[in-house]
Amino acid sequence: MFKTLLILITSLFLFTGCSTWSTANIKPSGQQNLPKKIKNTNEIVLTEENITDRKYISLGEIDVSVNKLTVFHSDPKKEDVNKKLKEEASKLGADAVIFVRYGTVGMTMWSYGSLNGKGRAVKFVE
Amino acid sequence: MVKGEQLNLLNKILFSLVIISICFIGCAKEAPNLPKDYSSLNTKNKLSKNDFTSEELKLSCEEISERLKKLNSLNNYYQSKTKNEIRQVAQVITIYGAPPKHSFPLLLPANTNSELNFKIAQTYRQSDILYKLQIFKNCKYISK
To answer: For chain B, where are the alpha helices, taking DSSP H only?
Structure first.
């Protein structure tokens, strides 16, 4: 009975629910005394380029890794990395993440599939 | 077979599978470093004419935007190629299970995408120079 329950729970864990786990590292730029207005992640602009038509201050560089839970789960995608970057940016009170860059999916010490992403969190001034 | 021997064999099989996976699927590659911050109001980095070649300084804002667009699409192409190669290698493993005896190239523990990764790094380097130039020339790029 206990064995059946254990197998069922393990199967549920493997094939449904969370398929990724992630880590984040933030290198702040020093502008930490700004009042933080936590934004909805949907409002945060994400771009692989620079934003030159609006003035901004840099809040810091965000480095995230999204990892798949087990070898049976699908590989993490750019969309997963984008979601994590936006989450971290919103904690900083950023309006946008610029110069977003991605690594390539592969194995690491801790995961069968990991995708790294970086970006600079900025806050518009005007 | 004695239970201890069975466990030992199982451990060996699992270990071999992990090693084979590392060889064929490859290690994750970190995202390239971001370009230096020259455009935020709180940056301490400054740009001057000496940071660019004379040919680069002759480019107009429109030409810079055009080149950036081409580099970005080239980058996306290389990245999708990288993804497809990883997928193809993974499919070979799925089809064959253990590597076939005659497939020597597959047995080499190497990153099959090293050339593509080099090209991706090159496009980022060239883009970084153009982003710097955009800032130096005060080009206004309309954000999406």
So the answer is: 3-25, 54-58, 61-96, 104-107, 114-136
* Percentage of residues of chain A with pLDDT beyond 70: 83
- Residue B15 phi/psi, 5-degree rounding, is -60, -45
Residue of chain A whose alpha carbon sits nearest to that of B71: A49
Q: Do the Cβ atoms of A14 and A74 come closer than 8 Å?
A: no
Dihedral, B96, B99, B103, B109 alpha carbons, nearest 10: 130
Tokens of residue B130, six digits: 């153009």
- Determine the distance in angstroms separating the CA of A4 from the nearest CA of chain B, rounded to an integer: 23
Looking at the partner chain, which of B35, B82, B135 has a beta carbon nearest the beta carbon of A104? B82
Nearest to A103 among B21, B30, B86 (CB): B30
* Residue-level pLDDT at A21: 84
Q: Check if B49 contacts A (Cβ < 8 Å).
A: no
Count CA atoms within 13 Å of residue A41 on its CB side. Answer: 11
- Asked if A50 lies within 8 A of B124 by C-beta distance, the reply is no
Across the A:B interface, residue pairs with CB atoms under 8 Å apart total: 108
Asked if the model's pLDDT at residue A112 lies above 50, the reply is yes
pTM for this structure? 0.73
**What does each C-alpha distance from B66 to A47, B31, B131 come to in angstroms?**
17, 24, 12
DSSP assignment, residue B139? -
User: For an interface test with A, which of B22, B23, B36, B37 has the most A Cβ atoms less than 10 Å from its Cβ?
Assistant: B37
- B42/A58 CB distance under 8 A: yes
User: What pLDDT digit, counting tens, does each position of A33-88 carry?
Assistant: 555 666 777 889 999 989 988 999 999 999 999 998 877 788 889 999 999 999 99
